[in-house]
Amino acid sequence: MNLSDAQQALLACKTELQEYLNDVMVTQPPNYDDLGLRADYFKWIRRKTKLLRTEKDFVLPHKIIPNKITERDYGYLRPDKRAIVDSYYKKDAATGVYVINAKKTALPPQDAEILIHSLAIKRGKVVWVNFGFNIGHEFRGKHPAIILKNTKSVLIVIPLSSQPPSKPEMNVEVKNVHGLPYRPRWVNILRIVPISILRVDFNSPIGDVKGDILSEISAKIASHGIK
Questions:
Q1: Is 90 exceeded by the pLDDT of residue 168?
Q2: What is the Cα–Cα distance from 156 to 71, expressed in whole angstroms?
Q3: Sign, Cα dihedral of 86, 90, 93, 95
Q4: CA 187, CA 171: separation in Å to the nearest integer?
Q5: DSSP secondary structure of the chain
Q6: Given pLDDT bands bounded at 50, 70 and 90, which one contains residue 152?
Q7: pLDDT tens digits, residue range 74-128?
Q8: Whether the Cβ atoms of residue 160 and residue 143 lie closer than 8 Å to each other
Q9: What would you measure as the largest C-alpha separation in the chain, in angstroms?
Q10: Is the peptide bond before 61 cis (omega within 30 degrees of 0)?
Q11: Residue 13: CA atoms inside 13 Å, Cβ hemisphere, count?
Q12: Cα angle vertex 133, ends 56, 188, to 5°?
């Protein structure tokens, strides 16, 4: 692959995108739903290209480091991670809650990353994910999703939907997500997907679900033989 090949591929891509737009302009006035669909697709292409360009420079934002850590969450941490918490948090003797006692932006990058992965985007947390523009009935757009597993560079998530399911047997109802507006939601166990951490919108609020919801999801997955 050389520069000429890349330029030809870019030109072919531009031509195909223009044709995709032209298809909806054949009739006048155009179908505005189809026009909006194309606009969303072009926006996603632009956003994804920008993500690819800046991927190597991506740094998890320090602002999502939790302000408080419960005694229970602290207890789940390994001793080395507890030591990091002890360095930047102060335990409230009355409540047992650990309250941050340092400026988040001043934390060393390595310690900040450990705190974020261990506490802010761990299993059970709910983050807003841009699933992009996909084909057919594949899940698309920006939706909250429950983190099932964090492997640092990749998150295994299950999207939440506010639309009542047509196949309840494949879904788990999530009546409330703490930290997000109250509304009934559902997760479809067939929609579990690995995503790059770059797809997470860290400007949106992070919520969480109770452990019994995670247990119900795991049981539903096991009952349908999904591994």
A1: no
A2: 26
A3: negative
A4: 5
A5: --HHHHHHHHHHHHHHHHHHHHHHTSSSS--HHHHHHHHHHHHHHHHHHHHHHHGGG----GGGS-SEE-HHHHHHS-HHHHHHHHHHEEE-TTT--EEE-S-GGGS-HHHHHHHIIIIISSTTEEEEEE----STTS--SEEEEEEEEE-SSEEEEEEEESSPPS-GGGEEEE---BTS----EEEEGGG-EEEEGGGB-TTS--EE--HHHHHHHHHHHHHTT--
A6: confident
A7: 999 999 999 999 999 999 999 999 999 999 999 999 999 999 999 999 999 999 9
A8: yes
A9: 70
A10: no
A11: 10
A12: 100
Task: Pull the structure tokens for residue 94.
Answer: 């009355």
Beta bridge partners of 226: none
Quick one: what percent of the chain has pLDDT higher than 70? 97
Domain ranges of the chain: 3-57, 62-120, 125-223
Closest CA to 45 of 25, 22, 72, 16: 16
Measured between alpha carbons, how far is 175 from 214 in angstroms, rounded to an integer? 13
Cα separations in angstroms, 146 against 12, 80, 94, 122: 38, 27, 32, 10
Distance between CA atoms of 141 and 135, rounded to whole angstroms?
Answer: 12
Cβ atoms 174, 184 nearer than 8 A? yes
Domain 125-223 = CATH 3.10.180.10: no
Residue 61: burial class (beta carbons within 10 Å; 0-12, 13-18, 19+): middle
Please state, as a whole number, how many other Cβ atoms lie within 10 Å of the Cβ of residue 105. 10
